[in-house]
Design brief:
heterotrimer; A alpha/beta (about 260); B alpha/beta (about 325); C alpha+beta (about 375); A: alpha/beta; nine-stranded mixed beta sheet; two-stranded antiparallel sheet; 6 helices; B: about 325 residues; alpha/beta; seven-stranded parallel beta sheet; five-stranded parallel beta sheet; elongated
């Protein structure tokens, strides 16, 4: 069985802080990580490799530094890695990103299962996975909490707000993984040495992909950013230093003033 | 794509088990505002099986027209049949705007529809406005994990699509006798489009009130110290007639269930009162509650960011303040 | 000469850092207070190959270099010195001598399970009457046909009681002095080999430190490591490598203390401002950072030297000497910067100070390191 796992290198947005003086984001010193939903997808693929010898290809679209994320995937046990990188792909929205990735997947070919994360912690759109499936004409099941292979089908526990569906779908298909799917394994020191010394990351540039200019990069993006800004934070209220019952009494008075009580 | 050919504001009317999702009404409210500015109509698109009767409530909450696709294959949400029907309806009707709830359904349906129709989709919008000069939809959403806001345009493709998180927009007050046009969409050979099998549907057992419906929320963070101390949060919530909520750290630590998590990756709430106890106020948490009418925070650390958004803040020990507060509230009754 | 970690080592350091923060740190205080050996952590480390880092894949190891191993000990020790020494004693003092001096069969039988972390290793040289004067071995090994009979006691043995495999030094020919000492591989459970007293210590309290008792213990001849009479050389060579591990442990402790203290001084307010605003605090932090950086360079260089030079005793000794004294001085200053809170167990800093002390003592006291360094200079 051949599995392609799409991963994205993202800044650890939980570490990002706001500069109180300028109101802008402090991005330096924020580490780059494999997007958590994607990592769970990668782990799911590696477990299938452990269980039934599936081959796992890690794929990422990004700047050259995304190389580190792919090395991490190799060090965890992926068999090979592909980096889609070219200036021409820059500034892409989800349509252009998914078109680009789909063309790379078409080029790789021979896959049974594609796994992506549900959403990235920087973009938070949850769109690229389903859109890749659409470009490739594959069924997709999103929000996978659990997954199992049965013959030539996948059985997925698909999460909804107040329930889940057990869904069976024939391969080839695309699944988007939730971080809750599993606890991803760590790399091993030997795996890292291997990833850097014995493995090659295949680079795919614009010239290598069969995709139209009108579907890639900034020009190929139906949506564009008009402006971005840091949120106007609600003004600071009244803060007091009181203890125990004094504090409680003060709060009760305030709540009465605001008609909560 | 000639934008002039596209007219009308469409809303995907999400329903589960025949019940219209709350977010649908919120979208109809917002949709009506947008339609008024654009001098056009709001159309609700309802897919399901045996759901004809639900059309009335959609009209009451702002729909000028309802298109109903009623077919056994649409009884339970499945990606492909829903995408196929919706795509057809969009191609036939050419709306300029289409709104969906950013729910587990919407966030699967909308991307696929937008790809099939080749248009732009903006997710988790918190603000929707019409740009005066162009009539384009300005879609504002959090990005970078909620650290910044971005306003997105879809200038050259139609329909302009957006998903909106439940609890963000306001629904209208229902109009008792609202008139509304009724259209039927007849799916053809829909069963052939089914490409998955639903083996089982399992509902999660709900004991607690959904935090998104609560008027008062008492939320606990890591500063509460331990799982046992959440009894204080529960007691205070009861005393105030509200519900218990939690920060992500608390849910990750296993002290509370995910359903009560507030924040960027949890739920967005806007209760009348949000009482944050032992919550530091990281941006990801604020993203889920800063629209609350009144925010009160109790925290040992006076530099905790939560105090930047709190209307009233106590620098003190939650485990000492809360019991006193509970006592005083009991006495007041 | 490159003073920056290459991408491979950077990613590996991150691996160790993440593992330490997520899996090791949460248990650190508990295992110290309960004096409990962290079996669960050892199992996890074994799963990811942390107990066989510098050994070739054919021996069940990870095939990495000494620097990678040193970084592992450093990062574990940064959050828990106990966990650091478990890795260090196992790898440098037990698995490494079998790797360096063992026969093919011995490597097959003992090195592979040690490298895979299926078995834990320990090293028994120190005796009640032989500490710094390690050549004064009283434990005897008498050849009797196809086996040796061991009699004697070892004390202060790290991983004692939890290890499955022990490297034991014993006197085979008293008349030859140093050259009458031999090394043996002894398995736990061997008749006549028992675990004696478990030490109650100032620091690294989760580490199991025990007495080993040999009473007519039968050790098969094929378990002798290296030739008869070569044991002392094996022990000294082993300790050279072990010193790099302890130097890395001390480095980790110092870095951990410094990191905790930087966070603390930013938070703590006195006289209306954060104490990090006072120049006294700033100067102390600057001095400590400089020392820790210097220690790091010595430790990493010693690790490089082990892989690239024939002799590395001086480098290892300097690294251990400096890193250990740095750990002690840095942790002491850090407790001071924490004030009264630093003396309580609410904060990890008092444990780090208690943990630091042993690095100046075991695997060769600082005095011994000075002897090694000076003798190298005065040849």
């Amino acid at each position: 069985m051949k599995i392609i796992v799409c991963i994205k290198q993202v800044p650890d947005t939980t570490e990002v802080k706001l500069n109180p003086e300028t109101g802008t984001l402090i991005r330096e010193g924020v580490s780059s990580i494999i997007n958590p939903d994607d990592k769970a997808g990668l782990e799911a693929a590696l477990r299938l490799k452990d269980a039934c010898g599936a081959s796992v290809t890690a794929l990422s679209m990004g700047p050259l530094q995304a190389d580190v994320a792919l090395r991490e995937a190799l060090a965890m046990g992926a068999d090979d890695a592909v980096l889609i990188s070219d200036r021409a792909f820059g500034g892409a929205d989800t349509w252009a990103t998914s078109s680009t990735i789909a063309s790379a997947i078409r080029k790789i070919g021979g896959y049974d299962l594609i796994i992506t994360g549900r959403q990235a912690i920087d973009g938070d759109t949850a769109q690229v996975g389903p859109q890749i499936a659409e470009h490739l004409g594959l069924p997709n099941i999103s929000y996978a909490e659990a997954l199992e292979i049965e013959g030539d089908t996948v059985i997925v526990k698909r999460q909804f707000e107040d329930r889940y569906h057990m869904i069976q779908v024939k391969m080839p298909c695309l699944i988007t993984a939730l971080a809750e799917l599993n606890e991803p394994r760590y790399m091993t020191p030997g795996g890292i040495a291997d990833a850097y010394r014995n493995k090659e990351i295949t680079m795919l540039t614009r010239a290598d992909l069969d995709v139209e200019d009108q579907n890639i990069g900034l020009k190929g993006s139906p949506t564009r950013v008009f402006q971005s800004f840091t949120k106007a934070v609600k003004g600071k209220g009244t803060v007091v230093n009181l203890e125990g019952s004094e504090a409680a009494a003060w709060l009760v008075e305030r709540m009465k003033e605001k008609f909560i009580l | 794509m000639n934008n002039q050919e596209y007219q009308g504001v469409f809303v995907f009317a999400e329903q589960v088990d025949g019940n219209i999702a709350g977010v649908t009404y919120e979208l109809l409210g917002k949709g009506s505002e947008l339609a008024a500015t654009l001098n056009t109509e709001v159309t609700a698109v309802l897919l399901g099986s045996g759901i004809e009767g639900r059309a009335t409530s959609l009209a009451q909450y702002g729909a000028d027209r309802v298109i109903v696709a009623d077919d056994p294959v649409l009884a339970t949400y499945m990606t492909e049949p829903y995408v196929k029907v919706l795509t057809d309806i969009i191609r036939q009707n050419k709306p300029e705007i289409m709104l969906y709830g950013a729910t587990a359904i919407g966030r699967d349906l909308a991307p696929r529809v937008s790809a099939r129709v080749h248009t732009g989709l903006t997710a988790d919008c918190t603000k929707l406005e019409i740009q005066e000069e162009t009539g384009n939809l300005m879609m504002t959403r959090p990005a970078f994990g909620g650290n910044i806001m971005a306003t997105i345009l879809c200038p050259d493709h139609r329909p302009q699509m957006a998903t909106v998180r439940p609890g963000v927009m306001m629904g209208m007050d229902p109009k008792a006798d609202a008139a509304c046009k009724h259209e039927v969409y007849e799916p053809v050979n829909l069963a052939a489009s089914k490409n998955v099998d639903i083996l089982e549907i399992v509902k999660k057992v709900h004991k607690k009130m959904d935090i998104m419906d609560a008027k008062v929320l008492v939320a606990g963070g890591r500063g509460m110290g331990c799982k046992e101390n959440f009894k204080l949060i529960e007691a205070l919530a009861e005393a105030l007639g509200g519900a218990v909520a939690a920060s992500r750290a608390v849910v990750d630590a296993g002290w509370q269930e995910k359903e009560v998590q507030v924040g960027q990756t949890g739920k967005t709430v806007r209760p009348n009162l949000y009482l944050a106890c032992g919550i530091s106020g990281a941006i990801q948490h604020l993203a889920g509650m800063e629209e609350s009418d009144l925010i009160i925070a109790i925290n040992k650390d006076e530099s905790a960011p939560i105090f930047e958004v709190a209307d009233y803040g106590i620098v003190g020990d939650c485990c000492k303040v809360i019991p006193s507060l509970i006592q005083m509230l009991k006495e007041l009754k | 000469m490159i003073f920056q970690l290459d991408k491979e080592h950077e990613l590996t350091k991150q691996l160790f850092r993440n593992f330490a923060e997520t899996e090791v740190k949460p248990l650190a205080q508990e295992i110290d207070e309960e004096e409990r050996f962290p079996y669960e952590t050892v199992r996890k480390m074994a799963r990811y190959g942390f107990l066989g880092i510098p050994f070739a894949k054919e021996f069940g190891g990870q095939g990495c270099d000494c620097l990678t191993y040193a970084m592992c000990v450093e990062e574990m020790s940064r959050v828990c010195a106990t966990t650091g020494v478990i890795v260090s004693a196992h790898t440098s003092l037990c698995a490494e001598p079998i790797h360096k001096y063992g026969s093919g069969e011995q490597k097959e039988k003992y090195l592979i399970p040690l490298a895979k972390g299926e078995k834990i290793g320990a090293f028994g040289l120190t005796e009640p009457g032989a500490g710094t004067d390690s050549a004064g071995q009283q434990t005897k090994a008498v050849l009797n046909g196809d086996h040796y009979v061991l009699n004697g006691t070892k004390i202060f043995i790290t991983n004692g009681g939890v290890a499955d495999i022990y490297i034991i030094l014993a006197m085979t020919d008293k008349s030859k002095g140093n050259r009458g000492i031999s090394a043996f591989i002894v398995e736990q459970g061997t008749e006549g080999f028992s675990i004696g007293k478990k030490e109650l210590k100032m620091g690294i309290r989760g580490s199991s430190t025990t007495e080993l008792v040999f009473e007519n213990c039968i050790v098969p001849k094929e378990n002798r490591l290296g030739e008869e009479g070569k044991g002392f050389g094996i022990a000294m060579g082993t300790l050279d490598g072990g010193r790099i591990g302890i130097a890395a442990q001390a480095l980790g402790i110092a870095q951990g203390a410094l990191d905790e203290t930087v966070a603390y001084v930013k938070e703590r307010k006195q006289f209306g401002k954060s104490i990090s605003a006072f120049q006294n605090t700033q100067f102390q932090l600057a001095d400590m950072k400089t020392q820790v950086e210097a220690a790091r360079l010595l430790v990493y260089k010693a690790a490089w030297a082990k892989d690239n030079q024939k002799m590395f005793s001086a480098e290892a000794a300097m690294a251990k000497l400096f890193a250990a004294e740095t750990a002690m001085s840095v942790t002491t200053k850090c407790v001071q910067l924490h004030g009264g809170y630093g003396y309580t167990r609410d904060y990890p800093i008092e444990r780090m100070m208690r943990d630091a002390k042993i690095t100046e003592i075991y695997e060769g006291t600082s005095e011994v390191q000075r002897m090694v360094i000076a003798s190298g200079m005065l040849k």
